Structures
1.
Amino acid sequence: MKVTTKKAGIAGLAMFGAAALLAGCASAPDDSGDGGSDTAIDFQPCMVSDAGGFDDKSFNQLGFEGITKAAEELGVEAKTVESKDETEYAPNLTSLVDQGCDLIVTVGFALSAATVESATANPDVEYVIIDDAADNDFDGTVDAENIKPILFDTAQAAFLAGYAAADYTTTNVVGTFGGMNFPTVSIFMDGFKQGVDYYASENGKAVKVVGWDGTDGSFTGGFEANDQARQTAQALIDQNIDVLLPVGGPIYQSAAAAIRDSGREIALIGVDADVFETDPSVGDLLLTSIRKGIDVGTYDAVLAAGNGEFDASPFIGTLENEGVGLAPFHDFESKISDTLPDALDALQASIISGDVVVNSYLSE
């Protein structure tokens, strides 16, 4: 099935600033893995997580894997710091600067303000921020010349997931909820709803999306796997859904617990990583996952910086450059319709060609 992409390259971005960023995008990261060196170099790569931590089985973990792989190939050791909450972002960055870091990778839009402040104060240090444009004044440009944003138009891959969910559902009700209503969260929900609606119009099957109306919806108020996330998932389960997309790092764990408690057959859709691989404990529930190439995007950026080739141009992951995509159906291969894989292949090609338009703040 072609829509299952390989791991290749890779948002607090304001909608009206996206077009300017896209105009200057870098090419897709190279997954050749041949940029390493046998000789130790004078280069110190560093990373700060958001409050999810490096074991979130999602984007923090993927970023950690990317910097670790690059550091190994460069013959150096990465310094990595976990943040327990938002009050630690700025102090963690200051600490890494003081320790002589040449490149600092910050994981997630929550670190945007702290990253811009640190980069502005330390122009000789190079920065990479994952899932954010570092455009806090919303003028369509990165706020410091030494920051490279790595962004993902996940609406495209989520569109495919929505189409698959609409094809799979038997209750004709599917649901989604997020951590907080930020662009990097709602972009998944937007694409998912558009994909469901597209399937309905193309196939004459009335499928309802609950939890997101295109503007607002169900949110937990944070990104922790807790009772609030479980209650939010349960509220959607009570509306007769049989497919659920939680968007917000580890909140999927609470959704999985609610699904198991329900005793019903409800399929889960993962985000960021192929959750079937990162968290096998929920593998039996996963229809698919909406992937971002965070690991390889981070690897590429760190490797380039270590080789003296840091490029601050923003990178936008799309279906075309394989920065985003669907994970395999894994245990659900035998449960999906025979026609779905070919339909998704054709749909992906239509999105890439522009025949099918997927709207997102990164495509405007």
Note: DSSP finds eleven helices and twelve strands in the chain.
2.
Amino acid sequence: MTLDSTAQLPRLPLLADRKVAMVHEWFGATGGSEAVFLAIADLLPHAERLVLWADEGVPTEQLRLSQSWMSRTPLKQSKALALPAMPLVWRTLTNRKFDVVISSSHAFAHTVKLGDPAHTRHLSYIHSPARYVWSPDFDGRGSHPALKVPRKMLQAADLRLSRHVHAYAANSREVQGRIKRFWNRDSVVVNPPVDTAYFGNAPQADQYQSRDYLLGIGRWIPYKNFDLIVEIADAAGLPLVIAGSGPEEERLRKLAATKQVHIHFEVRPERDRLRQLYWGARALLFPAHEDFGIIPVEAQACGTPVLGLRRGGLLETVVDGETGFLLDGLDPAPYAAALHRLGELSRYRIQQHAGGFSADRFADRIARWIDHAAR
């Protein structure tokens, strides 16, 4: 199907005459997949919203989230331990039947079955097939040799319990390829929404910063390669700001203390502060293999170029040589050298490109997909 057609947009709210359920994995206080779920829910205000559990601090009543029985067990404290039980929980979630089910899945939400497939249309938006099951090289939770047999069992269950899904949407071409490779299913690509309007319209004082430091943002976990970000800044002789949080904090602080350049840590910055950091940075360093990557788009909405790994979602979100530079491998030297070429880039062009991933564009494309696939 063509999502960018000039055909008339479907009427809102979508599927108003049908009984609709929206399903998501666990619901964290912040996160890209949660933002996608809520953006879709805005188009379907009458839909019931079902999740395995919600983390502490999530306003479940305000968001109208119904939690499964797993939320009343200790399993909610450990996603790794909960993982093998998830397919079963989804199958016992409710005895109610729906006309349309829309799942937002990065683990097993797409295996939920809330009606006879002959009468219930199941559409699934995939953030990624479960990395710890299908791509253990990405996620250490599934890479231990002792998990090889359980992983095979979960793969078989994933395939068997998702046959009833009628249509898939992938958040990137990277994920579209995994859906085909692992599940042998076709999908359309609908990139997730990024609040480019918010990040692009900062106060004047933020916009006129000196842009004298490099920036790394994200969860401080191994595959994000924050240690490489530190090495790049040191090789370039430029100060660095590292924003986020995670289990690697102590190790990264010790590494930073061995470097000559000034490295400042911002732990869990608020949204306004995050925007300020984007606008003040000379470049965002993002040498990680991501499914899509919302952070690089937020940076570009602020006119900040991205230096990243030539893999995964960055191949879609960064135009090499126009909105940043994509490099091969994990050697800091080429990244440091590319920083000398930032003057070749137009900040106006960088912001213009980021606009293609706006929340409005997502709403348009996902509405067309739902309207078509739910028939």
Note: The longest strand covers residues 213-219.
3.
Amino acid sequence: MQAPITLIGAPTDIGAGARGASMGPEALRVAGLAAVLQAQGLTVHDRGNLTGPANPWRPPQGGYRHIEEVAAWNHGLHGAVLDELRAGHLPIVLGGDHCLGLGSISAVARHCRERHKKLRVLWLDAHADFNTAALTPSGNLHGMPVALLCGLGPPELTGIGGHTPAIRPQDIRQIGIRSVDAGEKRLVHEHGLEVFDMRTIDEMGMRHTMELALAGVDGDTHLHVSFDVDFLDPEIAPGVGTTVRGGPTYREAQLCMEMIADTGRLASLDVMELNPALDVRNRTAELAVDLVESLFGKSTLMRKQAPTRAT
């Protein structure tokens, strides 16, 4: 039986290089996220929006922008997500920029440690987000959450979940990657992240890519999806601050979501980096809602029997 779903808004662009992602939660609500999930017979509770520090829009200090404010937002989100997981709910975090993946995933990892469950994180993104202050001059923390989750960075950010590192590199699979800095690439290789970049998808197709990314997911696995909307090709999803050409098409993205749904193991979700200020008539938010609906079982295909689940 599907767990009740909880929507948690985190309206901040505190870690981003462009303003506007703070409006993402409301755009997803306007696009009908709760209604489409309820139409599938799911119970949905909207907890409203978390609050946190305003964006001071300062330059980097010590290699990081807004480190205190980012820590405050992620501590608040960690607590909210952990509370919902402990209550047996499935939290959906409505971002906000992707620095919020730090609070969300650290809570999921903590819950998995408490329940002695395996963790698998699917990071759907154009970027690896494995930067450190030594590698990026911008200091924007939305480019660093995976590195921080893996323990690379200041303790006020790496220790948010009470355990450093929050996750191991082998817990994560990155899909759709196509923009990685040279130093970041070396760091990804050094730490052994499993990355399915766009060349992989081009060569093997989305089906085989997802089979590999989901390999080993079983009944003892907590599957978390962190969906950065810039994962999608900007031709279909212009409403993000960090567009990168050459992303998945609509059908590739649908197949990705449907195969995740087929596992029956999805237990938490982030929807990040939607920027309505850069969108066209909320079309990116509507597409994101369409794809989230597929994550919860909507299929564009007609089959006489359910597809085989990942093992």
Note: Confidence is low (pLDDT under 50) at residues 305-311.
